[in-house]
Amino acid sequence: MGQNTLIFVSLLASLATSVNAASLFGPFPNAKYPEEKRIHFTPFHIITAVSNQGFTLKPVSGRLTHNSFELPDSYPLALVMNNYLAQFKNLNAEVLFQCEAEGCGDGWAMRDQLAPLITVDTSYPGAYVAAKLKGAGGDVYSSIYAFHREGSYTKVQLVTLEVIPEPLDLVEANSNFLQQGTQDVAMADRRSDDAQDSADHPLLGRMPGNYITRYKQTNLTQVPVIVGISAAGIQTQSLDARLTEIRYQMPERYSLFEINSNYAAAAQKLNAEQVFYCKGTGCGDDDALIKAMGLFQDDAEDQWQEYQLYRLSRPQGDVYFDIYSQGRYDATPGDTTLRVMELSVLKTDRIAINLDALNDAITQTGKATLDGLLFDFDSDRMLPESQPVLEVLATYLKQHPAKGFYVVGHTDDKGERAYNQSLSLRRADAVIQSLTQQYHIPASQLTAHGNGEYSPVASNENESGQALNRRVELVLRSDME
């Protein structure tokens, strides 16, 4: 008995006699790297003819099984395909079409037609056969494609499709849902996660479920806002204003669309005028935009950003507010920063100190409050408006080089006591550093001290009293005279 006969007999023994078995064909002898893919229901095209005009196709649909494996180089293409043809005959199948090599038409067209389930390697000769079989449950179609890579292997790929009605009862529909009203997604309250000593601005509250990750207030500063974006770059306008900056972390259940639409709706309720708006890549590079605004915020994705700037008019001075929101690569929300800017002017009358007044205060009481020394909110960074006070102070110290002084920082009683003490000391140090570096006052003449909240000069129960308690004093040291 020859080798081909032995293979044929063993294959016959392994094949099922019913096309309703789990697989139409059993395993091929010496098959390697078997793979199987099942698709519950799909349309599929069977090739039934080929001509210069292309392929004639028979559309079918049903439950599909795709098998593939490799055979050793000793299995020629004709032997493989003849074995399957023999089994089609054994199963009383109707062979719809078969071809080999050039008879299959253009190799690239064959590749495009059979993709993506069946891979055609146009570098090697291939063969194709398609057949129709009768099963107990209905028609079954089978197509087989194989190519032989000389000196390496024979690749075999089989598609079996059982014709069944499209299963359209897989999804259960709940008609009771249509009788219900729209229900909002519940958002847990996370105010307890707010940054210390932070609060919503009275003008615009928060959306449910978000919390504050950064809070900053500055009595008077210059705030850059975005007023235009063009090929030339980002155009900004600087506002002299009282600034409240609040950065919110939004729940992932919100979309950026919902976040920005809600802020836009709130602006409309306030009858605010929209000054500028941009969205996505229309805002340009998000890192550049963040830097232009001076925000403390990480960059995210250019396509998931949105900026809105509004203006409100009032007798006491205009109010601007802007909103910058970001999203991650999957469009879930990241940080949203709200800034409220109350336009103001520098109150030069706050600087009540002059050389004569400073000299009189030290002579009479041994200390003087350095009104007009202004710091950024929650920071030891002095504002530019403090410069005239430093000049008066430097002049006085140079006139009294033999005297020593304490520079004492004070705070209100908001926040932790230890933090307030540290902040007051850092502010005192900042004053000394400016005097020694800018005006060359000897460091030995000055000693920094932080008194925190322990020596108020007014009540901390109101904002005006708190403002008076946030101060720096110059105190004469009699032990150095």
UniProtKB/TrEMBL annotation:
<dbReference type="GO" id="GO:0009279">
    <property type="term" value="C:cell outer membrane"/>
</dbReference>
<dbReference type="Pfam" id="PF16234">
    <property type="entry name" value="DUF4892"/>
</dbReference>
<dbReference type="InterPro" id="IPR036737">
    <property type="entry name" value="OmpA-like_sf"/>
</dbReference>
<dbReference type="InterPro" id="IPR006665">
    <property type="entry name" value="OmpA-like"/>
</dbReference>
<feature type="domain" description="OmpA-like">
    <location>
        <begin position="362"/>
        <end position="480"/>
    </location>
</feature>
<dbReference type="InterPro" id="IPR032608">
    <property type="entry name" value="DUF4892"/>
</dbReference>
<keyword id="KW-0472">Membrane</keyword>
<feature type="signal peptide">
    <location>
        <begin position="1"/>
        <end position="21"/>
    </location>
</feature>
<keyword id="KW-0998">Cell outer membrane</keyword>
<protein>
    <submittedName>
        <fullName>Outer membrane protein-related peptidoglycan-associated (Lipo)protein</fullName>
    </submittedName>
</protein>
<dbReference type="InterPro" id="IPR050330">
    <property type="entry name" value="Bact_OuterMem_StrucFunc"/>
</dbReference>
<keyword id="KW-0732">Signal</keyword>
<dbReference type="Pfam" id="PF00691">
    <property type="entry name" value="OmpA"/>
</dbReference>
<dbReference type="InterPro" id="IPR006664">
    <property type="entry name" value="OMP_bac"/>
</dbReference>
